[in-house]
Amino acid sequence: MNSTSSYSARFHIGTIEPGARGPILRDDDGLCWRLGFVDERMADGLNGRVRVRGRIVDVDRIEVEYVEVQADAEDS
């Protein structure tokens, strides 16, 4: 039986950075993911800290289904 865990949607949290081929999500561990969007309008004006739901479709790419902008509040 083949595992489908890499194809299932999950949440990823990080900071959006501009990239040459579109937005990039950098997580707290420093890993970077290129983001592809089911609906390209979701990417318009996207920046800062976000939580995305999507499927990992390549070793460095997430196909995003949902985006939630996170508050920039820091715990002290």
What does this structure look like?
The structure is a single chain. The protein is mainly beta and 76 residues long. It has one domain: Beta Barrel (OB fold (Dihydrolipoamide Acetyltransferase, E2P)), CATH 2.40.50. Helix content is 0%, strand content 49%. It is built from no helices and 5 strands. The protein has a 5-stranded mixed β-barrel. The protein is globular.
* CATH class wording: Mainly Beta
CATH superfamily descriptor? Nucleic acid-binding proteins
Fraction of helical residues? under 10%
The low-confidence parts are: 1-5
Whole-number mean pLDDT = 84
SSE ordering: EEEEE
Q: Biggest sheet, open or closed, and with what strands and sense?
A: 5 strands, mixed, barrel
CATH architecture: Beta Barrel
Number of strands: 5
Kindly provide the radius of gyration, computed on alpha-carbon positions and rounded to a whole number of angstroms.
13 Å
Domain unit count? 1
Our count of helices gives 0
**Separation of the first and last Cα atoms:** 47 Å
Please outline the helices and strands.
Elements: E1 10-17, E2 24-26, E3 32-37, E4 48-58, E5 61-69
Parallel strand pairs: 3-5
Antiparallel strand pairs: 1-2, 1-4, 2-3, 4-5
Briefly characterize the structure.
The chain has 76 residues and is mainly β. Helix content is 0%, strand content 49%.
Feature tags:
5-stranded mixed barrel; 5 strands; globular
